[in-house]
Amino acid sequence: MTYIDDIAGQIRSRIPADLVPPASDALFRIYAVLAEAKGTAVTARDVHNAWTAWMAGQRREHPSLIPFDELGAAVQAEDEVFVAAIRAVAAARGGV
User: Fold this and answer.
1) How far apart are CA 23 and CA 30, in angstroms?
2) What is the pLDDT along the chain (96 residues), one digit of tens a residue?
3) Closest by Cα among 56, 30, 80, 42 to 64
4) What does the alpha-carbon distance between residue 88 and residue 75 come to, in Å, rounded to a whole number?
5) DSSP string spanning the chain?
6) Among 48, 45, 8, 14, which Cα is nearest to 30's?
7) pTM assigned to the model
């Protein structure tokens, strides 16, 4: 296990199980990179961009594979639980 896997696991553990996509190890590794790179300054836009990069390899026809600003407010808000988890892990690790 790498340190990125460890961070990814910490982030995943803060997400309700019903919100964790299947086969999402790679997604949570990207979120771990966000935690390391952006720390507590990570935004919902960052989370959406990371999810888009992951989802593009999963299911290209997903309706949310559009720029963050083009999403409806309710869909944008769905990213907040992931933002909070990434920020919490980053803060616990001494991130910015």
Assistant:
1) 13
2) 899 999 999 999 999 999 999 899 999 999 999 999 999 999 999 999 999 999 988 867 888 999 999 999 999 999 999 999 999 999 999 866
3) 56
4) 22
5) --HHHHHHHHHHTTS-GGGSPTT-HHHHHHHHHHHHHHGGG--HHHHHHHHHHHHHTT-TT-TT-S-GGGS-HHHHHTTHHHHHHHHHHHHHTT--
6) 8
7) 0.94
